[in-house]
Design a protein that fits this description.
The complex is a heterodimer. Chain A is mainly β. Helices cover 0% and strands 53% of the residues of chain A. In chain A, the strands form two sheets. In chain A, strands 2, 4, 5, 6, 9, 10 and 11 form a seven-stranded mixed β-sheet that branches. Chain A has a four-stranded antiparallel β-sheet with strand order 1-3-8-7, with no helix packed on it. In chain A, strand 7 (64-70) and strand 8 form a beta hairpin. The N and C termini of chain A lie far apart (37 Å). By secondary structure, chain B is mostly beta strands. In chain B, strands 2, 4, 5, 9, 10 and 11 form a six-stranded mixed β-sheet that branches. The chains are: A mainly beta, B mainly beta. At the A-B interface, strand 4, strand 5 and strand 10 of A face strand 5 and strand 10 of B.
Chain lengths: 115, 110
């Protein structure tokens, strides 16, 4: 079974703090993704990475950065947390791009509250 | 632009059949996926369509019409455990990016 793990299920931080969310997958997937999920808005892509040290902006990258130093690990960084970044953060990984049935496998999510 | 629409909420009775619709307008298309997400949990993969037609998987079936930008997920013999959100997602031409719809929250009543 594919396993995607995230460093925390729940996190509470204060405005202005630097926040690190980590994601690890064990299936040797090339692609990894960070989404945030908010009621009524669905999943929105923040950043994705298709290889080590490679990253691409998604739909809402402002206020976030990412790091992928190893294939299995993809980190999301909030440089200076703000209250509007309170959300559920979901990491996902997926196999070879373009394969017919490659789906995305999701981690359990991190519910981040910024006070 | 990228746009995927689904009904926000649906209610159905245990044992019944329910159809959840999804319409999409995306710049590219390389497959449509359905995911199930129980409250507080991660989305899990349900089904995949890339060609027009119906794909059946036990109690769940998914249909795709590419010319109409339309898909539906059909759930038969509903059970209480089917109460969840159902997410429709389109994969882009390069097979890397997924665009997700807002999700449909299904409540199954006894």
């Amino acid at each position: 079974d594919v396993k995607v793990t995230q460093s925390s299920r729940y996190l509470v931080k204060r405005t202005g703090e630097k926040v690190f969310l980590e994601c690890v997958q064990d299936m040797d997937h090339e692609n990894m993704f960070w989404y945030r999920q908010d009621p009524g808005l669905g999943l929105r892509l923040i950043y994705f990475s298709y290889d080590v040290k490679m990253k691409e902006k998604g739909d809402i990258p402002e206020g976030y950065s990412v790091s992928r130093e190893k294939k299995e690990r993809f980190s999301l960084i909030l440089e200076s947390a703000s209250t509007n970044q309170t959300s559920m953060y979901l990491c996902a990984s997926g196999g070879t791009s373009g394969s017919s049935t490659d789906t995305q496998y999701f981690g359990p999510g991190t519910r981040l509250t910024v006070l | 632009g990228q746009n995927i629409d689904q009904p926000t909420e649906m209610t159905a009775t245990e044992g019944a059949i329910v159809q959840i619709n999804c319409t999409y307008q995306t710049s590219g298309f390389n497959g449509l996926f359905w995911y199930q997400q129980h409250a507080g949990e991660a989305p899990t993969f349900l089904s995949y369509n890339v060609l027009d037609g119906l794909e059946e998987k036990g109690r769940f079936s998914s249909f795709l019409s590419r010319s109409k930008g339309y898909s539906y997920l059909l759930l038969k013999e509903l059970q209480m455990k089917d109460s969840a959100s159902y997410l429709c997602a389109v994969r882009d031409n390069y097979g890397q990016n997924f665009v997700f719809g807002p999700g449909t929250r299904l409540s199954v009543l006894p």
